[in-house]
Amino acid sequence: MNHSPAPIVYLRLRSRVRMIQGQDLHLGDVAHLLTEPEWEKDLLELVLKRPQKQDGNLILVDMLQIISKIRDHIPGVVIESLGKPHVLVELVERPRKPSKILFVLVWLLLFFGSALTIMNFHADVSMMEVQVRIVEMITGQKDEHPYLFQIAYSIGIGFGMIVFFNHLFKKKWNEEPTPLEVEMYLYQENVDQYVVAEEYEKMARLQPKDKKP
Question: Is residue 210 very low, low, confident or very high in pLDDT (cuts 50, 70, 90)?
Answer without folding.
Answer: very low
